[in-house]
Amino acid sequence: MPLDECLPIVNYVLMMQKYSIASLLRHGINNHTSWPKAWRSPPLKESYDVVIIGAGGHGLATAYYLAKEHGVTNIAVVERGWLGGGNIARNTITIRSNYMRDQSIPFYVKSVALYEEMTKELNFNMMHSKRTMIDVIQNYPMMRDRRRRQHIMDIYGSTYKRISEAEVRKRIPALTGGGPGSRLPVIGGMVHTDAGVNRHDAVAWGYARAIDALGGEIHQQTAVESLVRGADGAIEGLQTNRGLIRAKKVAVAVSGHTTTLTETAGLKLPLRTMNLTAFVSEPVKPLVDVIVNCPDAGFYFSQSDKGEMVIGGAPDMGQSFRRDIKQHVFEDTVSAMLSLFPSFKKLKLMRQWGGHLDIAQDASPIMDETDVPGLFVTAGWWGGYKAIPAGGLTLAHLVATGRPHELMKDFTLKRFRHLDYVMETGTTTAR
Amino acid sequence: MMNIPCPFCGPRNEAEFAFGGPVKPRRPDPNATSDDEWADYLTQVPNPLGPVEERWWHVKGCGTWLSIWRDTRTHDIVEGPGNAD
């Protein structure tokens, strides 16, 4: 191996402060004042091989795999706000692979597997908790839909299993509503044992630290104003609030603002931006040890390690760039939840948030090079948190080699030309 | 919460309405358009960071369809450029 290819790896091994019990003890002696910074804040250069817009989950994962798998280390990840302050902090940390389509399931199976290895891979505690998701089913068409998914998932090694109503109630004791006299009685459940939750901040910080150690740069407070095309039409760089940055390859990983940004390069994409919301209760004693998803009622929740109920529900009607929850969306979700979990009426709510994300009309992601040569997008992630590692792995492959990765070859932009959609019903947890 | 102005019922709560999507460009003549233009018409919706014109259906009220301009950043109903004529 030539020296310039070795250096990033040597750098990775030497530079990154390995977190371990020994380092904890060593720095503990100094009252924890001697910890090095987890990542640098280097000066912004004039040009890079690859610039990734958006230091969210997908942007960071792409930079990480570009550096690690493909040796592309002259990378900058530019971020308008702060690291891990976008949708990676605005989700319900649900990691699962119970999807519907042949194109989707292997992708998410890979993503779940990468998440499970992430603590070791990045030497950063992801607090991964593989705790199973149980769907509470309340009508027969939904049950048939889930059984159909089960048969497809079986082919690709994901897990889905039907359980009886009695078993559902045994495993979720707080589920006291939805009895025989109610409008939608609980008729059974589906168990997805691959599902889990982890710590979203750790995903952002773990990737950032690893990218930095591999030689990549992360630039916060760097807002992209427009994409710049050269005379030949190909991408040439981007105009930011800190000046022009040149790059032959630019990847856009900005979620809801994808169309806003690509329109500055004269590129229209088949995406609309929606606001998906969630809220959190006060912490209570351990009550529910699985992720509970109620597709017929239209909400889902899990209990965090702190004891808070993390509750997700419906999106706003219409396109939305808001980052909060509307009162009636909130009320609808709460009333749906109380119909099945009446005891939650006593819970006080602490925080609410919304994240704006973009969705294509077939609800599948878009990962492709656009009509502007050198401009890549990763977009259409509705519930993209679970897709972060596989999304980064596959987009990095496309950016570095110019060929799509096997796992994402169907998530193209071309499919809208031929109306060859990948209609995906497994995208939202609650539906 | 939006108070959507219904031409028959006056300003009414958003919860009474169903969303009908943004107003799309006119349907092109299928015989006089290229495949690409047709695919664009079918797949692309206006997605502005700011005012968008859209259709709402007063489904739990009088049942009429109406158009409003709404700012996607705030959900405020705003004056649209088309309201002048």
* Largest sheet descriptor of chain B: 4 strands, antiparallel
Distance between the first and last residues' Cα of chain A: 50 Å
SS elements, strand count of chain A: 18
The assembly state of the depicted protein chains is: heterodimer
How many structural domains does the protein architecture of chain B include? 1
- What's the order of the H and E elements of chain B? EEEHEEE
Give a structural overview.
The complex is a heterodimer of chains A (431) and B (85). Chain A has eleven helices and 18 strands. By secondary structure, chain A is α/β, with parallel strands linked by helices. In chain A, the strands form three sheets. In chain A, strands 1, 2, 8, 9, 10, 11, 17 and 18 form an eight-stranded mixed beta sheet that branches. Chain B is mainly β and 85 residues long. Chain B has a single domain, classed as Folate-binding superfamily (Folate-binding fold), CATH 3.30.2270.10. Chain B has one helix and six strands. In chain B, strand 4 and strand 5 form a beta hairpin. The longest helix of chain B has 9 residues. The two termini of chain B are 28 Å apart. Classes of the chains: A alpha/beta (431), B mainly beta (85).
Please sum up the structure shown.
The complex is a heterodimer of chains A (431) and B (85). By secondary structure, chain A is α/β, with parallel strands linked by helices.
What is the strand and helix layout of this fold?
The complex is a heterodimer of chains A (431) and B (85).
Chain A: H1 3-15, H2 21-29, E1 47-53, H3 57-70, E2 75-78, E3 94-95, H4 105-122, E4 133-137, H5 140-155, E5 161-163, H6 165-171, E6 188-192, E7 196-197, H7 200-214, E8 217-219, E9 224-229, E10 235-240, E11 243-252, H8 258-262, E12 272-281, E13 291-294, E14 299-303, E15 309-315, H9 327-340, E16 349-359, E17 366-369, E18 375-379, H10 388-401, H11 414-417
Parallel strand pairs in A: 1-2, 1-11, 2-8, 4-13, 11-18
Antiparallel strand pairs in A: 3-7, 4-6, 5-6, 9-10, 10-11, 12-15, 12-16, 13-14, 14-15, 17-18
Helix pairs in contact in A: 3-7, 3-10, 4-10
Chain B: E1 3-6, E2 10-13, E3 18-22, H1 35-43, E4 51-57, E5 65-71, E6 77-78
